[in-house]
Amino acid sequence: MTIQENLQAINQRIAAACARAGRNPAEVRLVAVSKTKPAAMIDEAAAAGQQLFGESYAQEFSAKAEEVSSAVEWHFIGGLQTNKVKYLRSKVSLIHSVDRLSLAREIDRQWGKLGRRVDVLLQVNLGGEESKSGTEAAELEELARQVARLPNLRIRGLMTLPPWCDDPEEVRPFFRQLHQLAEGLAKLAIPGVEMRELSMGMSHDFEVAVEEGATLVRVGTAIFGERQRAGG
Ligand SMILES: *Cc1c(COP(=O)(O)O)cnc(C)c1O
């Protein structure tokens, strides 16, 4: 299967999941996760019509973005150390992984230097796994209130990376919970906080995520194939 064929198949599966859930497919955007993959594959996907790409490793991304010749949109989706935020500045339109105030402050500071604002999602750890980043659901409201006060970033929704389950149906409750958390936050009407995006679902469970309300699905392996190595 070529990248083009993979993209076509995934877009069809997203459309079918939307149909099952009575959703408009235009509400769901596919984030092609290209971490560890070469610029040439990103250009190939772009030539096949894919506009939006997600990266997880700040330095790898920063170097690779220069090599990609197509005009594409970038999201940053990975765990982010505060001292790496500078590599993303002016390059990404959405950061999915804001999980603590110190990180939000540094993003605010870096985008402040540009005199621009960046959109962010708050990442929530729903599985209670120590190894995963994300704020606890119980601390989400407080984090949202604090981050919302920073002038150079806007909260646009929530993201989660649920525990790995062989059966995607086992992940459904986590997706549903993220959706409910977003609805709860929206009701608080905190200035600077909008709950328009739900970033959830990966290669093996994106259809369930779409059925549960995802607006951004982050798919890597099913587009580009297995990853050989961890990035840097
Ligand atoms: C790597 C990654 C993905 C993509 O995972 P696949 O299983 O390859 O689709 C999605 N989200 C995040 C946060 C990732 O780091």
Structural summary, described in words:
This is Pyridoxal phosphate homeostasis protein. Pyridoxal 5'-phosphate (PLP)-binding protein, which is involved in PLP homeostasis. With 232 residues, the chain is an alpha/beta fold. It has one domain (3-224): TIM Barrel, CATH 3.20.20.10. The chain has eight helices and nine strands. Strands 1, 2, 3, 4, 5, 6, 7, 8 and 9 form a nine-stranded parallel β-sheet that branches. Helix 2 (39-47) links the parallel strand 1 and strand 2 (52-55). The longest helix is centred in the N-terminal third of the chain and has 19 residues, at 3-21. The radius of gyration is 17 Å and the shape is globular. The mean pLDDT is 96. Bound molecules: pyridoxal-5'-phosphate. The site of pyridoxal-5'-phosphate has 13 residues, from strand 9 and helix 8.
Summarize the structure.
The protein has 232 residues and is α/β, with parallel strands linked by helices. It has helices spanning 3-21, 39-47, 58-67, 101-114, 140-148, 172-188, 206-211, 221-224, and strands at 29-33, 52-55, 73-76, 94-98, 118-125, 135-136, 153-160, 193-199, 216-219.
Could you say which small molecules are bound to this protein? pyridoxal-5'-phosphate
Shape: globular
Radius of gyration: 17 Å
> Class, according to the CATH hierarchy?
Alpha Beta
**Total number of strands:** 9
Please indicate the percent range of residues in DSSP E strands (runs of 2 or more). 15-25%
| Relative helix content | 25-40%
End-to-end CA span? 28 Å
CATH topology: TIM Barrel
Topology:
Blueprint (H helix, E strand, L loop, with lengths): L2 H19 L7 E5 L5 H9 L4 E4 L2 H10 L5 E4 L17 E5 L2 H14 L3 E8 L9 E2 L3 H9 L4 E8 L11 H17 L4 E7 L6 H6 L4 E4 L1 H4 L8
Parallel strand pairs: 1-2, 1-9, 2-3, 3-4, 4-5, 5-6, 5-7, 7-8
The chain binds pyridoxal-5'-phosphate.
